[in-house]
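Recap from last week: sequence in, structure out.
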Amino acid sequence: MKQIAIVYYSESGNTLALAKAIKKGIEEVGSTAKLITAGIFSKDMLDSYDGFAFGCPAHGSENLEESTFEPMFNAVLPHLRGRNILLFGSYGWGDGQWMIEWAQNVANHGAIHAATPIIAMDYPEEEQVIQAFEAGKILGS
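Predicted structure tokens:
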């Protein structure tokens, strides 16, 4: 049984909805998942988990949220080499380019993408919830 941290930032509940679907998928395969807000997660917590789902909505001109999520993520990023991760988030404009760039940056640092990143425009529709659930199952296996 794996221990998975789902680290997220959500203002409107869109990204949190994806986090909850990922959690259900992880638990479906018998692993344990913990929802952790980005403001309390730190690199010191990395060794307590077997895998990670990081979720953040797009901000500004399709960037990670800058005051809470991005500083936390930049602190853990150098320590993700060889670790299984899943990225997810929501956006309200643009075409999702922020997720493509985020995923590439994580891969460049040696993290292992357990599944394709999950993105939803605004509140996740059933298709994105199912994708998040299935990705959670992969991450938790």
